Amino acid sequence: MAGSGSWDGSQSDNSSQFEPGIDNIYEAFICPLTKQVMHNPVTLENGQTFECEAIEKWFQECRDNGRPLSCPITSKELSITDLSPSIALRNTIEEWRARNDALKLDIARQSLYLGNAETNILLALKNVREICRNIRKMRQRVRNPQLVRLITDMLKSSSHEVRYKALQTLQVVVEGDEESKAIVAEGDTVRTIVKFLSQEPSKGREAAVSVLFELSKSEALCEKIGSIRGAIILLVGLTSSKSENVSTVEKADKTLTNLERSEENVRQMATNGRLQPLLAKLLEGSPETKVSMAFYLGVLALNNDVKVIVAQTVGSSLIDLMRTRDMRQREAALGALNNISSFEGSAKVLINTGILPPLIKDLFYVGPNQLPIRLKEVSATILANIVNIGYEFDKVPVGPHHQTLVSEEIVENLLQLTSNTGPEIQGKLLAVLVGLTSCPNSVINVVSAIRNSAAIISLVQFVEIHENDDLRLASIKLLHNISPHMSEELANALRGTVGQLGSLVAIISENTTTITEEQAAAAGLLAELPERDLGLTMRLLREGAFEKIISKIVGIRQGEIRGIRFERTFLEGLVSILARITFALTKETHLAISFCRENNITSHFLDLLQSNSQDNIQMASAIALENLSLESKNLTKIPELPPPNYCVSIFSCLSKPPVVLGICKIHQGICSVRESFCLVEGQAVDKLVDLLDHENEKVVGPALAALSTLLEDGLDVVQGVRLIDEADGITPILNVLLENRTENLRIRAVWMVERILRIEEIAREVGEEQKVTAALVDAFQNADFRTRQIAEKALRHIDKIPNFSGIFTNIG
């Protein structure tokens, strides 16, 4: 037949491939061009019938080849090319096809049982897919519940291939058919499909996602899918997978988009890292939906990066909810803001979005529609989260008159609110003050407000709280922060009360192997109190505080007590507290000296002196050693000489000076580390000299001061210089003078250099050092009056100023 060879056969219909039991086909159903059963038969003027698409293509080929339009069967030219639909034939064919498909489905159904051969099952599934596609072309549905159930049974097959083809078939069957979807939703079929998301090979996972995507188009099934344990987390995982094919990822994403119609699914997605749907509903949902999403956002675990994204996306909406008069909306917003405000990045976003003014208003406002205490506690928690990021709050207005968070009026209101509320909110408000006092720019304002409102006594009383650990911790941290600025007031408050000082000591000495933040803060607080406050020191001594502190120091040094975060600050505080006992030696000789002797306190500080990279500990230890050493000359035991015998008493020429062993070169008596705190006996000189090269002048100063105690009036200064020289200490002392890092260091260095230069051979050697001479001349010209006197004396030792040219009198 002319032209028939040009047909490409792309339109196929496997219904013409007869199978046993299939209804007979009529020749009139077959298109002469395609040799397939027709879908849309049309008739030419000569009565010949063809598939519409096929004859139109034939006519187009005639035109392309310059031939007249003709009938493909008769080859006769057509005078009229109109195509008349053969409606009766099309209806007959559709009836036949429906009958034929039903028969074929029945045959396939008979093959769908798990005991059948795999090849038979696969063939049956293939036929079902093809038939369903044909039926869908006719805009009909497969109304065969039994068949749907048989296909779902194939998901239980032990064969990956059968399960895969069953999933493919199921997708075709349920597409656009709500009844079939409802049947699939029966029993555990959806659960089985979800299980395939993680247990099947790649093509099986893709097929499972495709079925879930079709099912998720039904709003009634969205909650069913979401309720299956693991469904949403597996789908979310697929959307972010780098190993899955693009089709699987896209369908998983579309499935989740469909599931968003259920609020519970949205909450599950947020829990599993897909937060955008929740945020979208919070922005665009109904008022009730917004509240629901905000409540859930308040309890959702979020990492810090996500908190920033949430603050940027819905921070403004949450603040708007917080401003409403609806208490439920405000509660939901506060919970969400509390959750996202706990990270510095998100807190800054909220500050810039304007959270502080309504937050402060909610805290302080009293009247109609005021927040209940439980929500004021949440507001205080948010404020505490925000202020602890170290922001410049003195530049952010929070009140109607441009007050800032550190304005005295605002701080006083916070203090007043702290006094008039319960423990839970008190702890949060104190945490706010802790944050404000942690910033150098705002601590002075807070201190001023505390002074003006006489709040120090009430703040100190929180130290005794035993029922609320968070409240007690916040109060101790606050007192620690303000202690450098209010040390006298704090000392008076603690000294004048019964239990607070003991409570702090009890916290510090708590019998634990792990150092807590509270212990570190309590130790830091006591360490900041005036070191020369004798009354406070004696209270601590009588309450046994120093023995407990020594025990803690030893435990930390021996590794029995640990705490990575707070160990350093805790130990620094302990050493500083222990050092204060050395300031009481001259005033309370008996008790303080007895304690230092009994506990061999000098040895402890000598050991601590070698705490490398711990400047504050070395500084406090050197200060303590200076105080101890100053007392040595009063504690050294002067040996009793034996009385002369009879002959010597008569003939003095026969006398010899008695020899006493063990005499200290410096103190000219019997010394020891324990009994007289002697630095020489403790071999401290080398250790102190090593610290003179320290980069921190706060360590160098105390080390120099401790060494200077060996050159005090009333001691053997020459022997003291010799000891320092033997420890190679002369050059480091001269370097301190030359570096001139601080005025206090220069004053101390000039004093020591003058005494060192009393040794003639050292003076000769140093006199040749022009830099030393220049440094002494500079001190002679520019230092304070006393230091100028001492510098002049030093210059005389090296013959730079003649002895007869004394400018000053009464040089001491």
Automatic annotation (TrEMBL):
Pfam families to which the protein is assigned, alphabetical: U-box
InterPro entries: ARM-like, ARM-type_fold, Armadillo, RING-Ubox_PUB, U-box_domain_protein, Ubox_domain, Znf_RING/FYVE/PHD
Residue runs in coiled coils: none
GO biological process: protein ubiquitination
Keyword annotations of the record: Repeat, Transferase, Ubl conjugation pathway
Keyword Flavoprotein applies: no
Catalytic reaction list: S-ubiquitinyl-[E2 ubiquitin-conjugating enzyme]-L-cysteine + [acceptor protein]-L-lysine = [E2 ubiquitin-conjugating enzyme]-L-cysteine + N(6)-ubiquitinyl-[acceptor protein]-L-lysine
EC number(s) given by UniProt: 2.3.2.27
CDD domains xref list: RING-Ubox_PUB
Domain U-box: 24-103
Pathway(s) the chain acts in: Protein modification; protein ubiquitination
Record carries keyword Transcription regulation: no
GO molecular function: ubiquitin protein ligase activity
PANTHER family according to UniProt: RING-TYPE E3 UBIQUITIN TRANSFERASE, U-BOX DOMAIN-CONTAINING PROTEIN 43
Protein name: RING-type E3 ubiquitin transferase
